[in-house]
Amino acid sequence: MNTLSRRSLSGLLLALLVLSACAPAVAPSVAPVAPPAEAVLVRAMTTEPAKLDPQGPPNSGLSLLLPYLYDTLVVRDVDNTILPALASSWEVADDGLSITMTLYPGVTFHDGEPLNAAAVQTTFERFKAVGTASPIYEGIAQFAAIETVDDLTVRFVFNEPAANFWSTVSMPFAAIISPASIAAADAAGGGTLVGSGPFRLEEWQTGQSITLVRNPDYAWGPATVTNRNAPYLDKMVFKVIPDAATQLAALQTGEVDVLFINQPSHKLQLSANPDVTLHETVLNSLIYLGYNCARAPFDEVLVRRALSHAVNKAEIVTLALGGLGQVADAPLPPTLPGYDPSLAEAGQAYDPALAQALLVEAGFTQSADGAWSRDGVRLQGRLLTSTRQPNEAIATLLQAQFAAIGVPVEIQQLDSRAVMEATSAGEFEFLLWRYDWNDPDALNIFLSSARIGSTNRVAYSNPAVDELLQAGAHTLDPEARAALYVEAQRLILADAPWQPLYYPVDVIAVSNRIQGAKPGYMGRLLVNDAKVIGR
Q1: Residues 469, 528: one domain?
Q2: 518 and 476, same domain (yes or no)
Q3: Is the pTM of this model over 0.85?
Q4: Which of 10, 122, 439, 460 is most buried (most C-beta within 10 Å)?
């Protein structure tokens, strides 16, 4: 029989005590700790883009998303100053025929590829090949050559000086795209194009929402933001809500954090909401009434002038906008070079009696019921506009103003994409529309003969205007350039393809749970410094 000595037994007991002390204790069941909540900013979006291609046809949804997904060579500050972005510096040749840019080092696309001079060259060569529907195509087409001087140096060469170069390359449509993503999309017959912006595309639920996720590698933000590295936000969600009243309700209930408002009643409601901050935006914008210059009798200057005299702009600003706008007297807003207050004398002021007299001069006769006709054809038409507010209120007032002189107008409201398709096909008589642009070259983009069928939605053509606009695009002297646009506007106002209505005052409403977001150039919301309070 084996026995243990007292010493051996004591050693064994000590060993067991040590082992038991080292063994894990049995703990009571505890609920797992939840991960910290993500910092998410939700913004209402009226319409979504057809696809995320910076070089494709424009729409409000596309221009809203592009600055977060892509970067441009330069950006503009709210005072119109050009600031470095992907291009850290540049040099303009004395003759104006070339601009050499040095790129910011260490920039990478979302797919990990380097953003270098070759990528810039590939981007703009693609643009020249496929971007004919883009509003900045004319500016891009001026690049006679794009040269890669070295890995981080790119040179733009022109046959003539390009006065609108800076306005072109600062637009979000001039975003630099990963060549690898271009090649992949071409091979697949379509696909997602990749940028280098502060956010990446995470998910797109068609008709519902577009979700962007923070780009952790971002370290090249422009001087328009304090935090030039990756955003503090984890995600941005753009929720598709076509109806403005529904957007307002979503903000008030906390479903969304940001929305764009241009209705006085909505501004009034939110002004009294202590949980919301309103930011008025500085825009270069015009809302106008256009006539289909390719369709009789609106192809006649006299008819367009007559109808323009029936429009009471002051009534529109007072009743439809509640004063949230300024009566327009020219095709360019006061914020752009080329605006001249004396142009008000060249336009068609409100004068219903003169409107009717001009219709008589154009050969129309008025029947006992007040209707106008010529050669058995009644003067009437469709007023086409988008569902964006306050278009319905404006269109209703225009309808009443035309009815007052005996011209019946039918209102047709479609989403923005459908309106652009309808105008391209010429399926309208009247058009209530808006443009936002950062340069007087807007006149070339929206009214030159070369843009008929695309951004020139009213099919207006005047060779003398075309000549002035082309000269303006190549004149580097600011005063001489502005004078060319003033003269072009005098001719445009005389031809009356548009009746300028008003210059808008728009507002971005931001929930106070979002701190640090601020409006930038053309009302774009800068979010690199934004944080979610209480997270």
Answers
A1: no
A2: no
A3: no
A4: 439
